[in-house]
């Protein structure tokens, strides 16, 4: 009998140890990261959720940003792969968002959208959530626009996830709907919208090769942040959008001597520097790194410094940039 109890005691002990280990492994992530705390305590701040591009060996989530205002995440820009997990780590609440902006519908900017749609069911959200993205202007053979993006994913007949179609149909019983907006990108006109009081968003078409793409600017509480998105600088529109901006996030996907498709799609460091200088941006944060650019930080800096002498920094996932 004694042996049995000893054995049980031993088993109980290892069971307890295993339980403690399990709890440690699966305990929910708290937003106790100092960068997330910084963003939550600022009046206005931008948090980089994903600072990478499409590669899966760059140590970064794909592209996504959160604008924090008064301790709440109010605007999300892009939803690349890994951004849902970074969102959770940031401590943000989907119920707080006033708008989602897409720069374009490449995988590294949009793949986690269905994750957020499903997760919305488990939040307290009851307000509709507008999403904005560039119209495809008849170039839909390579990229879609916002309404086609949601339709092909969530249409109840033909969609990939028909069980979530209610979130896109005002006649169905869901706590809220996503409202997709297609923003024209044929001319160079500024697009403006006010998804919530005091929150001004503006977008402008940019050239991501010949693909429909946009740069976005958000003005709130007297501060502004501008996100270049993926672009090559040929259209010369970002300079206008970013005029006097407090923070310009510039996508740094290539180095100065990149050739071919990369150079057709993205800005070289000297182009980023020229645009930052012309816009008189107060601060530039580089993001959307790829291995070819992040392995050449010194040369990247030199290219930008050929034109721009203001504050310059490099994004990492979850890094918080207070706009003061
Ligand atoms: Zn990209």
UniProtKB/TrEMBL annotation:
GO molecular function: 3'-tRNA processing endoribonuclease activity
Metallo-beta-lactamase domain location: 61-288
Keyword Nuclease: no
InterPro entries, alphabetized: AtsA-like_MBL-fold, Metallo-B-lactamas, RibonucZ/Hydroxyglut_hydro
Residue stretches spanning the membrane: none
Keywords: Hydrolase
Protein name per the record: MBL fold metallo-hydrolase
């Amino acid at each position: 009998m004694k042996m049995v109890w000893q054995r049980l005691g031993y088993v109980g002990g290892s069971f307890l140890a295993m339980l403690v280990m399990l709890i440690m492994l699966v305990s929910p992530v708290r937003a106790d990261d100092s960068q997330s705390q910084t963003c939550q305590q600022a009046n206005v701040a931008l948090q980089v959720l994903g600072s990478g591009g499409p590669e899966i060996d760059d140590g970064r989530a794909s592209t996504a940003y959160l604008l924090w205002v008064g301790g709440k995440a109010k605007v999300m820009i892009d939803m690349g792969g890994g951004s849902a997990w970074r969102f959770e780590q940031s401590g943000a609440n989907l119920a707080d968002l006033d708008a989602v902006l897409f720069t374009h519908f490449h995988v590294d900017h949009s793949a986690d959208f269905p994750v957020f749609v499903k997760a919305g069911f488990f939040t307290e959200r009851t307000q509709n959530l507008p999403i904005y993205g560039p119209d495809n202007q008849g170039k839909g053979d390579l990229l879609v626009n916002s309404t086609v993006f949601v339709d092909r994913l969530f249409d109840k007949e033909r969609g990939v996830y028909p069980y979530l179609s209610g979130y896109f149909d005002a006649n169905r019983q869901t706590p809220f709907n996503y409202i997709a907006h297609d923003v024209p990108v044929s001319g160079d006109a500024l697009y403006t919208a006010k998804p919530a009081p005091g929150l001004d968003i503006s977008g402008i078409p940019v050239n991501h090769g010949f693909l429909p793409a946009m740069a976005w600017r958000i003005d709130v509480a007297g501060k502004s942040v501008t996100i270049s998105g993926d672009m090559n600088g040929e259209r010369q529109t970002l300079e206008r959008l970013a005029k006097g901006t407090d923070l310009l996030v510039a996508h740094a996907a290539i180095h100065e001597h990149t050739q071919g498709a990369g150079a057709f799609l993205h800005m070289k460091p000297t182009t980023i520097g020229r645009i930052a200088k012309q816009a008189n941006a107060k601060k530039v944060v580089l993001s959307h790194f790829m291995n070819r650019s992040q392995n050449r930080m010194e040369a990247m800096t030199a290219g930008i410094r050929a034109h721009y002498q203001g504050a310059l920094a490099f994004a990492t996932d979850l890094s918080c940039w207070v706009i003061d």
